[in-house]
Amino acid sequence: MYSSIVSKYYITLLLKYTKVDHFGFDVNLTFKQRYLVANQYWKKENGVILFYTGNEGDITWFCKNTGFMWDVAEELKAMLVFAEHRYYGESLPFGNLSFTDSKHLNYLTSEQALADFAILIESLKKNIPGARNSPVIAIGGSYGGMLAAWFRMKYPHIVIGALAASAPIWQFMDLVPCGKSGPNCSETIQSSWKAIDRLTSTGEGVQWISEAFHLCNPLRSQTDIIVLKSWLAETWVNLAMVDYPYSSDFLMPLPAWPIKEVCKYLTDPNESDKVLIQNLSQAVNIYYNYSGEANCLNTSQTATSNLGIQGWSYQACTEMVMPICTTGISDMFEPQEWDFAAYSDQCFLEWGVRPRPLWIPTVFGGKNISSHSNIIFSNGALDPWYAGGVNENITDNLVSIVIPDGAHHLDLRARNIDDPQSVLFARAKEVEYMKKWIEQFNGVSDSLRK
Amino acid sequence: MYSSIVSKYYITLLLKYTKVDHFGFDVNLTFKQRYLVANQYWKKENGVILFYTGNEGDITWFCKNTGFMWDVAEELKAMLVFAEHRYYGESLPFGNLSFTDSKHLNYLTSEQALADFAILIESLKKNIPGARNSPVIAIGGSYGGMLAAWFRMKYPHIVIGALAASAPIWQFMDLVPCGKSGPNCSETIQSSWKAIDRLTSTGEGVQWISEAFHLCNPLRSQTDIIVLKSWLAETWVNLAMVDYPYSSDFLMPLPAWPIKEVCKYLTDPNESDKVLIQNLSQAVNIYYNYSGEANCLNTSQTATSNLGIQGWSYQACTEMVMPICTTGISDMFEPQEWDFAAYSDQCFLEWGVRPRPLWIPTVFGGKNISSHSNIIFSNGALDPWYAGGVNENITDNLVSIVIPDGAHHLDLRARNIDDPQSVLFARAKEVEYMKKWIEQFNGVSDSLRK
Question: Would you say residue A314 has pLDDT above 70?
Fold first, then answer.
């Protein structure tokens, strides 16, 4: 089940009954939260617990893709815990009914998830012999990294620190510009949108494009063409996210440095429309069909099914409103303003709820987080989410690590021979900070204590 | 409306529409939260805002009884804001239906109240010209003091510090012993319970006791006798809470140092039962009928109707589970163990909900709060809630002020000629800390900044 780097560990899959609603008392239901525990390197007397704050997907998949925790377990004598986020994977509060309506979805919030984590940790420390006084460090990537940071902010009595990898905690209204980025061979992509427009202006062209992209469902309407374009745009963003230095399988199975592979097909923005689209199709194929097993491409999917797209769509329509906009000039995408009213209407149509775009900054502090401590914000400069992250030290205890050659949370991935120096350096710094927190907690280093 | 010390100020009563449920998106209702603003001493360009985190009662009553804020307004050039807690006073989310069932009561939690405060402050800073960069300090007494402390812990980006007066944040399960205290003339009170038992063992005695206490509703059943006893017990606790050095009217209109007045009647624990009860009745009368206007005493009331007893009863049955127990030996009360199961059953009967006694320590940190900063915990040694408070400095920025001659949040009351030195000292320290926080915030004192 796990890649070779982790298969030497024994891991236990467990379930914990937890409240559906931590913030009210009328609904007295519970559900089974899934979590994974690996403790073969754990120092039994109050050794550290590294706790992965699960995000929007199957926790076993995050477990597989967070080799960093496995790599450092022995050195830190750590127990590893991976907690699944409610409404994802198998941790569904209402089973098959979980996504049916806004009533069943009402308990899908980051605050409820953080409370799940807090209660799970308290229960582990109470029930695992030797763990009562174990320090706990939160670790997460992407939305999981946001949760790790927020967990330390809101529950500093439960976690002594947090590693928030590629966590765009500032990608919210009025905090950072809403721009979007992608591969560096942008000129061809920039040219492609108008080429698609020109080709799809005729019925013959529409059919030609469907075939050129090997679409499973040929384009039939204007809506299909809009969907094709946003599928392409998301593909470019995803490719930039997983631009790892070695062959990997996170969102999709891909070669090493996939952007470089993709850009090989996108060298000349001045080709004829058909040639340009044929090249684009080749490029897209790197992402969707590197294994060569796909007979056709499906525009309704842009990544692994381990991600919970329903849950995330709801979260994006409630709390996790992360404005995105494009200009077509400073970026490679078609110009699109951030239109909150339209976004809100779309959310209401889809989920029966309206987003509250300012709630996350209100509850988690926005840019004003300097009174917190012991959080590492690591970000890869190749990552499209980079701009929404914390990329400067805020205080001595609230630090930023930038990884120039890193894509989306490369530092959380398992050691690899092709890792660039910058990620090795980042991981070493991360371990150093964690050791400092543990020392502070254990009172070993008196000079570090208050 | 206000006592002389505050009547010179102009105060505005305002309403703010706020969400009934901040932690979910299915219920999209709002309600009107009441708050009071006084700004005549406020320095318009980013002067400080002192924000009273309203607790379980009518906000205008807390406003009247928090003269300290009025007394320091000029010195600190502060705006004063008093925010009413949801489900109290006139801030009822569902009007008359607010207390009808567990469904309507579902949004009565401390977390929702803190979110109300956060959103109110953000809205004030946005809408009041000159307030955009105002530092805000939370101030509260009793449960309001707990909220002030928790507000700083959870929303340090919104308040730069908190004065938590007589805030028993540790009066929760497993944190402090559950004992209860009261007046110092305890021997007579200790003797009184058995005297009541002996007298009420005959019908004639029951009638005699009803008359001795001038009860509005004569005792008719065993239950009535139990109610009488808990009414008495609560009276002693309340008396100790408001043992102020001057004539006051907080829970009831009372003379200066009411405990001393009460104890005058309780000097000899070895009197005959009837004499003892007659003395007890005189003592009780100091509390319930100091004004001399009451024709009879009502065992269903123990304090001003400004307190919201329904709301607090529900909160005590959900989050605010503060175990109380008595031994009859180390204290003056009848022995009573803390019986959580019975308590929970009673809550279920009354409100249809069951308490979660460990939730408050989980969410607000219990005794492990040292990573927070800028909170003053002040406690009066005469106060029965003293033992549940923070009475030692935790860090340089999380400090305790003990007021040996103080009852329940005496420091929050208006200046008075009869104030003991210890409360004058406490208030001076409090102002000193607040000035330090403001300086830190304004960056005036570079040496205090990170």
Answer: yes
How much is the average pLDDT of A22-48? Answer: 95
Given CA atoms B431, B436, B438, B444 in this order, what sign does their dihedral have? positive
Residues B157 and B219 in one domain: no
Q: Mean pLDDT in chain B?
A: 93
What is residue B391's three-state secondary structure?
coil
Q: Quick check: is B301 in a domain?
A: no
Q: Report pLDDT digits (tens) over A235-285.
A: 999 999 999 999 999 999 999 999 999 999 999 889 999 999 999 999 999
Domain edge (last residue) among B228, B257, B289: B289
Per-residue model confidence (pLDDT) at position A125: 97
Number of structural domains, chain B?
2
Of the candidates B106, B362, B396, the beta carbon closest to that of A122 is on: B362
Give catalytic status of residue B372 as yes or no: no
Q: Of B289, B312, B331, which residue is a domain's last?
A: B289
Active site residue B116: no
Residues whose CB is less than 8 angstroms from the CB of residue B293 and which lie 6 or more positions away in sequence, other chains included? none
- Judge whether A103 is closer than 8 Å to chain B, CB to CB: yes
CA distance B23 to chain A (A): 7
Regions of chain B where pLDDT drops below 50:
1-7, 445-450
Which residue range(s) make up the domain with A196? 186-289
> Does one domain contain both B258 and B163?
no
- Residue B248 annotated among the catalytic residues of the structure: no
Dig out the tokens for B159 from the structure: 């308040």
Do residue B190 and residue B282 come from a single domain?
A: yes
Percent of chain A past pLDDT 70, that is, above it, reads: 96
- Decide if B318 and A25 are in contact by the 8 Å CB cutoff: yes
CATH number at residue B60: 3.40.50.1820
Span between the terminal Cα atoms of chain B, in Å: 45
ipTM reported for the complex, 2 dp: 0.93
CA distances from A70 to A42, A51, A130, A417 (A): 11, 12, 21, 16
Tell me how many degrees the CA angle B363-B115-A115 measures, rounded to the nearest 5: 30
Per-residue pLDDT, B449: 41
- Rounded mean pLDDT, A304-319: 95
CB neighbour burial string for A287-305, b if at least 16 within 10 angstroms, e if fewer? bbbbeeeeeebebeebbee
Nearest to B248 by CA among B75, B376, B409: B409
